[in-house]
Amino acid sequence: MAGIADVARLAGVSQATASRALTGRGSVSDATRARVVDAARVLDYVASSTAASLVTGRTHAVGVVVPTIGSWYFSEVVEGIHGALLEHGYDLSLYDASPHTPARAAIFERLLARRRFDGLIAVGIEPEHHELARLLSLGKPVVTIGSPEASASGVTLDNHELTRRATEHLLELGHRRIALLGGTLDGRETSVGDQERIRGYLDTMERAGLAAAARHIRSAVSVKGGYSAGAAVLGDSRDRPTAVVGICDEVAIGAIIAARRMGILVPADLSVIGIDDHENAEMFALTTFAQRPREQGQQATALLLGAIADPGAPIARVFEPATLIVRASTSAISPEHSAVVAGTRPRP
Question: Which range of residues forms the domain containing residue 110?
């Protein structure tokens, strides 16, 4: 494989001049630059990224930190980031930082500081753990996805608003016994966006005068977690909710599967609403709020590349809209269930 010395020899210049001509750094005449470029083309020369980074200060590498790569949302975001980076000739280093694990602590405390990146994208990190401040202290451009923090550029949804709207959709259909499935407020099974969704549900139930009836069933944010939470909350017919909000579509789909196995009809006996518009949401006729995680990854990449090109650029925040898609998993509460809620359960 040809090296920079071979290119310099063929072009009749020094290695330093050849390097300046190919990187665009330093003073080189147009004629010399053309001669070096022609020599590189003849030799099929590919510049070493390591050597180029020493000259330009750029590594053409971006670090991406996610709380999990096992969920549909995060995998879609990463695919969006990866595709956008490839288009611009950047490499991606992915860090799976599961919350409250030694691996996560090592990533934020040591590993990221040792690696050379042009910038970082953090997806769903918990700002109350000072992790965002840690990333910013590395002195590289940082873009977030899903974080409400305004100290860095980012792409975000109003997650509190999403569960408010989801809960109000069910309230408007006459439901009062509404449970939320998935995640934990301490962040052990979820990302910061999901914590905001929990708070949005609780606040909406309180404003509706239903704080005492609010039920949040903790679970992993997955189909399996939703199935377990659904089985737990639907098992007692005397205390069964008439509607549930899944903290994401995967949890909502798990709840639908649990209901079907227990002989509970959706939506006749149980209305279910999710958030995300997962790739399987249509198959389960799931009412949900559609967001575009792959596009969020692309938008975050554009923000980061802009910050890399212009380190002095101001902080930019992009708010991603979400659209309610009504399918067949939610319906108005039946008179029978209304009677149960009112405390006048009909006799069998």
Answer: 61-157+293-315
